[in-house]
Inverse folding.
């Protein structure tokens, strides 16, 4: 009877390999089987013809032993060899024995295994194979027969992105070599155990980061076989700060532990005289966070071929953390109305935000402000392997017209012209620093780079900022990319006061050179202390180097002509605050000091106004306005108290309880202009968190959270927010009302899931009071140790 031909290709290979058929014949089959087969052939003649033309539309039935491989390269069995079609047959079993097929792949991806420990990815709470580029990893491959290096060939095939291409670095073919060289993608057999071979694999330190699909291709004398892709064997490739050839390399192990591996941080806020701090859960190792970070990159729509360059990656992330123009992770809201989402002050970490973004398939999470944008940005940086830290700049300028100065416009009566005063000075602003080499800039500009996800101004058409080299910012080299002018103005711009003339023009009447950029702060390495890094952003205030940097920068700005000779001064004004400053619910007391350095009497008319401010420096409403005439004797230092009563501000405060006192004055005898602004906030109480019972993994425990209302009024609809990495997921507790000056406590139960020193975070939110939070260290014992 005629010999049946069967396709032995997997359907997934259509279009990649030529069609291959083999002849099979077996004269020992009984007649019933022949009759049955003949009937099937008659019934399915069209299918057999279609199978040859288009195997994907009409696959071979019951070909179960060929589902895991794609076979090509076997000699054409239909070729005329002079035997009139009669030639020795080859059975399925014999063919399987001849082909070199992959039966299983073991990436040795256990969290406690050698790969993830050496790659410093053992902290990721995921069973995926997570490694860092530029570093060797090992894997086992089990084959259908022993590997013979003299006749067999093998290579790994890695693909990432939507359109993998070898030329773009998104399709990587890893060859098998005799000896590893270390400067390329390569693999070598380091051990063979019968059918199992152990490979040692090197990757490039410039490799694209992301999720790679892995397949193995083998080639022997009897054909080529491609293993089927198994998502469980996908490789997650990260940046590598431990690799000297990676552009994010950081040589200090202590700094790597802090800026890459620490999943808890501290974020500073308030004013330069009243620095507040809150603990933030970065949670970069939490289950699903790495997948979400890659999801964010994918949502950007940028090609994966650019994901090997950290400069490109951080610019993508900077744009994608905010939702403007690309439906990124967080929607900003500075209105004070957060009824459609979560108040920014309620967030204690990034995990809940990132999980919600992916859960809702890329719908922006409501709401964020600068410290939330920065906290999430730092989480993504550390998760992807880029060293990062969260940075707070006090008295942070927002330059809106690229003048590199902060301009204040006044009318003829020294009243602010509100519609012209677009520039502002935020009480504080929070962004992130990331660490990387900058081969795209002149030598010496690598290291820390400022990046900002808070949407303020556009950069190349998108709301993003950085990376701006801190070295370039410090030296006023604002012509270097990316966004150095904006960052320079934030930390080192001069504040210039302009007065309108009768003809409508403006004259510069005063300048303040030391009001912007103070106490730039980040968490210290290895401790919870505050580390002042102002010196990395600017030279010492007033030094020759600092003035040269300012003049260099402003020469590239839109108001280069603004700099004139300093005005002679013999009267100065200063605002002082005692201790940590006023508390919420009490009167605010400040001290104003006027100093006369001349030998003559001076009469000063001093205008004071206090306003409620958003922490961004945007004016909300004026609370009180006064005018005072002061006589200052020769060489006298005159001090007087300024008091703002609780009843004057109680109904006007917003999120950060921020206020600004503005003093403007003129000296009658000399016409000298005095001007200064002083920002302060009303301190809120902390939540007190007290653990109850012993903390053991898998065993129930509790904490008591205590709070005292500082206000002489009832707090309405109070909500507590509690979370802790390895302790409990984010949890909201609707408490209700808390009476005037009342003390309350509540108890929360939970079961710790991870051992070690953990931090439990709690915050309180209501319409009358925000920015109330607390943290407690909880040392969780492993169950075995506790026993």
């Amino acid at each position: 009877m005629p010999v049946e031909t069967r396709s032995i290709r997997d359907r997934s290979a259509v279009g990649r390999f030529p069609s291959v058929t083999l002849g099979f014949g077996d004269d020992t089959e009984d007649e019933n089987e022949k009759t049955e087969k003949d009937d099937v052939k008659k019934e399915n003649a069209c299918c057999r013809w279609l199978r040859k033309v288009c195997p994907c539309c009409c696959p071979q039935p019951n070909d179960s032993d060929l589902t895991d491989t794609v076979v090509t390269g076997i000699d054409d069995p239909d070729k005329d060899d002079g035997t009139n079609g009669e030639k020795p047959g080859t059975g399925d079993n014999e063919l399987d024995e001849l082909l070199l097929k992959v039966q299983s792949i073991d990436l040795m991806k256990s969290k406690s295994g050698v790969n993830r420990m050496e790659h410093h990815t053992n902290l990721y709470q995921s069973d995926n194979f997570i490694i860092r580029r530029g570093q060797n990893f090992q894997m086992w491959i089990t084959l259908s027969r022993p590997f013979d290096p003299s006749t067999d060939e093998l290579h790994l095939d890695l693909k990432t992105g939507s359109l993998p291409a070898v030329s773009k670095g998104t399709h990587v073919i890893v060859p098998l070599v005799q000896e590893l060289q270390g400067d390329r993608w390569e693999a070598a057999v380091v051990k063979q155990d019968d059918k199992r071979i152990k490979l040692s694999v090197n990757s490039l330190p410039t490799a694209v980061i992301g999720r790679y699909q892995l397949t193995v291709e083998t080639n022997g004398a009897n054909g080529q076989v491609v293993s089927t892709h198994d998502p469980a064997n996908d490789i997650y490739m990260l940046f590598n700060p431990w690799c000297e050839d990676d552009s994010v390399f950081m040589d200090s192990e202590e700094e790597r532990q802090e800026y890459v591996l620490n999943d808890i941080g501290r974020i500073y806020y308030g004013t330069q005289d009243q620095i507040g701090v809150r603990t933030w859960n970065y949670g970069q190792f939490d289950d699903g966070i790495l997948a979400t970070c890659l999801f964010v990159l994918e949502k950007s729509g940028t090609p994966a071929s650019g994901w090997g360059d950290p400069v490109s990656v951080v610019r993508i992330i900077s744009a994608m953390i905010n939702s403007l123009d690309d439906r990124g992770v967080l929607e900003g809201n500075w209105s004070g109305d957060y009824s459609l989402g979560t108040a920014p002050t309620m967030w204690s970490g990034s995990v809940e935000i990132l999980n919600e973004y992916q859960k809702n398939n890329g719908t922006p999470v409501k709401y964020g402000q600068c410290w939330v944008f920065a906290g999430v940005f730092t989480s993504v940086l550390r998760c992807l392997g880029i060293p990062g830290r969260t940075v707070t700049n006090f008295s942070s300028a927002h330059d809106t017209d690229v003048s590199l100065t902060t301009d204040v416009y006044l009318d003829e009566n020294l009243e602010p012209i509100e519609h012209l005063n677009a520039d502002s000075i935020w009480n504080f602003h929070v962004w992130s620093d990331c660490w990387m080499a900058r081969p795209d800039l002149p030598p010496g500009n690598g290291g820390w780079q400022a990046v900002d996800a808070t949407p303020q101004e556009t950069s190349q058409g998108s709301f993003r900022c950085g990376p701006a080299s801190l070295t370039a910012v410090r030296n006023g080299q604002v012509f270097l990319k990316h966004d150095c002018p904006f960052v320079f103005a934030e930390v080192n711009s001069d504040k210039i006061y302009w007065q309108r003339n009768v003809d409508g023009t403006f004259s510069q009447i005063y300048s303040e050179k030391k009001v912007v950029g103070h106490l730039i702060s980040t968490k210290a390495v290895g401790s919870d202390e505050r580390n002042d890094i102002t010196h990395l952003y600017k030279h010492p205030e007033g030094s020759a180097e600092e003035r040269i940097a300012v003049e260099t920068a402003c020469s590239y700005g839109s108001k280069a002509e603004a700099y004139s000779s300093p005005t002679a001064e013999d009267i100065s004004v200063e605002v002082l605050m005692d201790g940590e400053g006023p508390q919420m619910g009490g009167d605010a007391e400040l001290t104003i000091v006027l100093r006369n350095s001349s030998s003559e009497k001076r009469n000063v008319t001093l205008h004071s106004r206090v306003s409620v401010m958003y922490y961004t420096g945007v004016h909300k409403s004026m609370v009180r306005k006064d005018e005072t005439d002061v006589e200052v004797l020769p060489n006298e230092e005159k001090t007087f108290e300024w008091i703002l009563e609780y009843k004057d501000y109680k109904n006007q405060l917003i999120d950060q309880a921020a206020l600004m006192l503005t003093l403007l004055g003129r000296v009658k005898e000399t016409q000298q202009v005095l001007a200064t602004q002083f920002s302060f906030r009303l301190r809120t109480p902390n939540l007190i968190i007290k653990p109850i019972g012993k903390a053991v993994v898998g065993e129930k425990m509790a904490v008591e959270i205590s709070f005292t209302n500082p206000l002489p009024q009832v707090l309405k609809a109070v909500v507590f927010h509690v979370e802790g990495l390895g302790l409990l997921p984010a949890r909201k507790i609707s408490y209700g009302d808390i009476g005037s000056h009342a003390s309350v406590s509540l108890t929360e139960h939970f079961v710790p899931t991870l051992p070690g020193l953990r931090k439990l975070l709690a915050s309180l939110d209501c319409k009358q009071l925000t920015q109330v939070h607390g943290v407690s260290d909880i040392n969780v014992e492993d169950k075995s140790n506790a026993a």
Summary: The CA atoms of residues 409 and 419 lie 9 Å apart. Residues 255-556 form a domain with the Coagulation Factor XIII; Chain A, domain 2 fold (CATH 3.90.260.10). Confidence is low (pLDDT under 50) at residues 1-43, 62-90, 564-568.
